[in-house]
Every structure is written in structure tokens, then in C-alpha cells.
Specification:
Layout (H helix, E strand, L loop, with lengths): L2 H15 L5 H12 L3 H14 L6 H11 L10 H4 L1 H7 L11 H6 L13 H9 L1 E3 L5 E3 H20 L10 H19 L5 H18 L1 E3 L4 H5 L13 E3 L3 H20 L14
Antiparallel strand pairs: 1-2, 3-4
Amino acid sequence: MKASQTYSLLARLLDGLEKRLPPNLVEILRIENYGGEWQLCADTLAGTLRGWRIPVTLEEREILSKVLNSFVVPNGENEFINHRDEVIASIPVRKDIIAGTAFQNIASSMPGWDALDCLGEEDFVRLTSMVYSGYRGSQESADWILLSWALGVLWLGDSISEPETRWNSFSAESMVRMLRARDQIAEVVENIDDPLRDRVTDWIDRYDKIYQLITVEDSKLWIAWKAKLKDYNMAWWWRRIPIDGPVVEEYDHFLKEIEKWKKNSKPQGNARPDDTKEA
């Protein structure tokens, strides 16, 4: 495929998907495309559509497939290009895209949509207008914060029931990002009024319950430690660990390394600290 054709196809995709993509990402992807970073742009776009479960039309999927298949694989660290068949198959396709917010398009295909389906368009627009400072100063709107938690919970569940390949597995760092979003949600809920608050709270509660079902209490607070939290009055979601999956494998490996370190740190034989001092 000619470079000009790749640019045109990516530009066409970005124009059509603009209102469904995270707002902070759209301009970045356009800059990458304009600057000739087509592989990076395509890889990021494909990963975003897959990770956020953003629905596309059949035509959009065909364009994305054409772009991804134009690159040679293996393609360095561009894992979504390297696994393009799996990625394309996992992106939801819809005949008709909802003429609403990105949140409506994504959440309407997720569990618990009945809790929000009764809301009016102005309620969803309200969520997009509420902007918060995220971790490390990033600006995020309430609707994407809500999706970060819910989609993270679903991804965690998938990693337990159907373990993913290592190239895109749910990690401890993924869990930390997800739980930071849950922290932000507490602030989001405080700043919205009824009946929107009741509906959003109901929706959140459903994902809280799923999270509780696929995790257990962790007295060692390993995930909180990974997040460098020092407040031991932290919320309950930080005090849990998945029941199985890649995160538990990381956790078990960490505990084994700690035990190995403790064993190697013990004084050998009957030697005493004073024995090494000069007379």
C-alpha cells in the first residue's frame, strides 16, 4: 500500500471515530498520522478500539483491517499489528452507531446498561463535561473514568476465566490503573445530583459486586503497595487480590522472591556478627 493511501485511510478512520475515541487521544493520533508514524498510529488505534470495546461499523472494521494488514509482521513492539487477526475479531461491530456520546456507544453493550438506559441525552452530556485531574495530572472526563473501572473489571474477569496470551495480559499495573479510576469515581458521584447520581451509583455497584466475586481479601495489601499507597485507611477495593490469573502469578512470584531474599539474608552456620571483626 502506498504511503499516501495509508495516510488517507487512517485520516478517514479518525474522522469517523472522533466522537467515540478518548478525547485526549484523537489529536495525538492525528499528529502521528500527519507525521508519517503510520504503524504507531494504527497500532495505538487498534489497541484503543479493542481495549475500550469501542464499536465500529462494518466499513470501519474493513478499513482498519486493510491498514493493519498492509504492514509486515512481526512489527517490532507494535503488538496489536502483530496480532491483528485476533484484534480485528475482538472489536465490536454494529450496523448502526448511536448518535450520542462515546459512553453511550460503549456502555450500551456492557452489563448493567438497564440502570442507565432511562437517562436523557443531557445526563450523558453532563458526564462528558465533568473533568477531573487524574493520576500524574492527566485531565479525564467523568464518563471515561467510569468506563475505566467497569472495563477494567471485565478485563480482569476475562483474564481469570479465559487466560490471555502474554502479549496483552492483565497485569498488576493494569489493576493499579483500574483502582485509581475507582478512587476517582467516589469524587464523581459526590458532584452529580439525583436522579443521575442514583442511576450512576446503581451501575457502579454492579461492577463493584463483580469485582468482589473475582477477588479475595489480601492481608498483605500487595496491590496497594504496588501503587505506593501509604494511607492505611484506603478504600476496600485496594485490599483485595484476584482469585486467579496473571496478577496472582505476579503476586506469587513476588512472595517467592521475598522468601528467597529472607533465606539468603540469614547469617550462615553458627557465625556471629562479632566473628568477622578484627581482634
